[in-house]
Amino acid sequence: MIPPLTRARDGRPPAPVRMLHLGLGGFFRAHQAWYTENAPDAPRWGIAAFTGRSTRTADRLNAQDGMYTLVVRGPGGDRFERVGSVSAAHPGGDRTAWLEYWREPRLAVVTLTVTEAGYTRTPGGGLDTGLPDVRADIAALRASPHAPVRTAAARLLAGLAARRRAGGGPVAIVPCDNLPGNGRTIARIVRELAEAIGPAWAPAAAHASYVDTVADRITPWPADETAAAVAAATGRTDAAPVVAEPFAEWALCGDFPAGRPHWEAAGARFVPDITPYERRKLRLLNGGHSLLAYAGSLRGHTTVAEAMTDPLCRTWLTEWWDEASAGLDPDPGLAAYRTALVERFSNPRIAHALAKIAENGADKLLDRVVPSVHSARRSGAPPVAAARIVAAWLLYLRADTARPASGSLRDAACDILHRLDPALARDPALVDAVALQAGELTRK
Ligand SMILES: NC(=O)c1ccc[n+]([C@@H]2O[C@H](COP(=O)([O-])OP(=O)(O)OC[C@H]3O[C@@H](n4cnc5c(N)ncnc54)[C@H](O)[C@@H]3O)[C@@H](O)[C@H]2O)c1
Ligand SMILES: O=P(O)(O)OC[C@@H](O)[C@@H](O)[C@H](O)[C@H](O)CO
């Protein structure tokens, strides 16, 4: 019988909790928890991590004292690394524990990976008070500051308010999701939520430093066989292993009023301006992923690596990168990043499902593709490659519905652009460009 992974046998004592994480999924474990594990002061920085709602990952991790294996999957083989920085795991519904951690004076950092949709914003970037969950949270917190809430912003605000009442100092809030100015975005959402609840809530929203970050490491959902590979290679059973590529990057910009782990020793960069890092990543990597997710799926592929073997997908990717790079700062290392991306996307041992990348297209394309559409429109050049991604998304959605497609491609192009940003649907040249690309894609 293969023994299970445990802290007593395989790790170090749990570090005192000074960090909270919301969104206990694969990426947090491959990235933020891994950077913390590899910081020289790791024994002083434990993380309490919360899922969105489910109990499964928290239960599995707690059964092995928070320890898990990161499978670093290169094109030539796997490396198995043990990570012990998660001192406690909780289901997202455990609001008593959540608020209790916020009241702890030693809490210093709160990280987030709640997906783009988790930011509950309008296309203009403000709090979307039209969303039922947002409305429910406003009503709940008006009724009681301890009420159960659903959205990430309400959980943060309730935590900050509990901390202020307990006399705790400001903390750093560090979102790691793929959206531009993620720190400034969540700051605005939390502030607008506080305003919507009532004037007494404003000081809580201001009781934090909001840090902008770009967090990069391709982390697919692990396949079922991962646990068996881990057991065979490490001699331990692990019910919560994670798979990620060897590449990892983390750029951060902002203040940490209560301190932080020495993440720079593990490779993180603290930069004065996040913009070049986020544009490079969101447009080239994430925009490229979205292109492959929609256009690659339409051509019958199921993973990123598979789509990379298709010459037509590769041509579209090159055209997108050329168009998206126009106007981008050549620093930090735009050309090298692009070269490395070809290798990262082509890693045949990473099974990154196109269907997962394709989820929530409206939220994702807003940050990955729409900025390129705007720059092309400003320069007077029609956006060909960006229009192709929007067109591929349109066809992907049509293929996904059981109903037969109705209406002209031009009408459909107008509708889909309206979903992204109503102003885009009022540009006839852009609508034509998307309809033209959709027509061409259906003929490929
Ligand atoms: N996977 C990657 O390669 C990668 C890389 C960079 C950034 N990211 C960011 O991390 C996010 C999560 O990716 P993942 O691979 O860990 O996904 P995942 O499906 O493994 O986990 C997502 C986690 O977030 C939680 N969650 C989802 N919506 C939430 C909400 N509204 N409030 C609170 N929690 C919520 C889920 O319950 C789950 O615990 C992505 O959406 C992206 O923004 C991922
Ligand atoms: O995680 P999402 O859903 O925001 O986007 C899917 C991928 O583009 C993304 O996860 C990348 O793999 C990641 O951003 C690489 O760092």
TrEMBL record:
Residues 18-264 form the Mannitol dehydrogenase N-terminal domain. This is Mannitol dehydrogenase family protein. It catalyses: D-mannitol 1-phosphate + NAD(+) = beta-D-fructose 6-phosphate + NADH + H(+). Transmembrane segments: none annotated. InterPro entries: 6-PGluconate_DH-like_C_sf, 6PGD_dom2, Mannitol_DH, Mannitol_DH/Oxidoreductase, Mannitol_DH_C, Mannitol_DH_N, NAD(P)-bd_dom_sf. Pfam families: Mannitol_dh, Mannitol_dh_C. Keywords: Oxidoreductase. Gene3D superfamilies: N-(1-d-carboxylethyl)-l-norvaline Dehydrogenase, domain 2, NAD(P)-binding Rossmann-like Domain. The keyword Secreted does not apply. Residues 273-411 form the Mannitol dehydrogenase C-terminal domain. It comes from the Bacteria.
